[in-house]
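[Automated response] Your request has been received and processed.

Submitted sequence:
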Amino acid sequence: MRRIIGGHGSEEGDEQINLTPMLDVVFIMLIFFIVTATFVKEVGLDVNQPDDEPMNVDPKKKNIVVRISNRDRIVIAQRDVDWRSVRANIERLHAENPEAPVIIQPHPDSQTATMIHVMDSARLAGVFNVSLASN
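Generated structure:
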């Protein structure tokens, strides 16, 4: 038996790369990522923005207007109010006019936490007709 030196022989054209194992690995990785992917639905607060059209306001009906400045100062009835006394002021104004809704006018640069605090204070004061308005 003789060996062929230099590797020239009948098997010269049969050298190919077998891609089947690589495709198997890719499909297994694809299945792994699909199965382990978590589909998270973020929880948020749906806020309906007011229309740009002016609302029809009844002049006989007074509103309780709460303004929030860009530095999170709270103004009720043209006077500055401490955040701890928002509920008491809304209760007082609601007792004077029980049909009056609370309209909150937050500044675009104010914090959302301040607006939520005013909304919660209005609900705790017994006013459930709370609206948001733009400045």
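Summary generated for your ticket: The first strand starts at residue 64 and ends at 68. Residues 20-36 form the longest helix (17 residues).
If you did not submit this request, please reply to this message.
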